[in-house]
Write the structure tokens for this entry.
Amino acid sequence: MLRRIITPLLIALSALALTLVGTAPATAAPADQAQPLQQTVLYYNASQAAEYTSAVASAVGVWNSSVSNVRLVPAPAGRRAEIRIIADNGWPRAHLGPVRPGGQVTVWMGRQGTAAGYDAVRIAAHELGHSLGLPDIKPGPCSSLMSGSTGGVNCTVRAPNASERARVEANYGSGLAGRSATDGQLLVDRL
């Protein structure tokens, strides 16, 4: 008796399933198209950057055009920024990231660096690189943004190289590589 009830029910359900599968719109992306990763948005506050506000804006533009997994955005009024940028009279320095949403690091745009003749946009981009998880590469060539002052006072390379871009992309990518905790170590960018 149970067999007489279950068999027609299974046949009806199978027919319904085949009908639904046959008429369902295709929603899967082709195998060769990767799904875009969710971009991490980090807010920065340059209200205390004084004369470096323009250099910081330029450096933010460099990073935003160089990487896609993370985007730097000015913090709206009342919102706590993950990256605070402050002008002071010391040497340029920053906390080592990668900073995560809700965390906080500080970049100091030390006037000693520009007084010595270093390019302010390069300094800002370099220090933001620390916030995004890049350590110093010293000594290093001018072609490496993270070579900092060892690139020389005449070095005006403001963009990260391919290796530096790849490391930031990995820091903010998916999986375990994109989930490492902020180091928080203070890096002073002096020879």
Remarks:
- The helical segments are 2-23, 53-66, 111-115, 120-131, 162-171.
- Residues 15-32, 175-182 have pLDDT under 50 and may be disordered.
- Residues 42 and 150 are 28 Å apart (CA to CA).
- The beta strands are 40-48, 70-74, 83-88, 93-95, 105-110, 186-188.
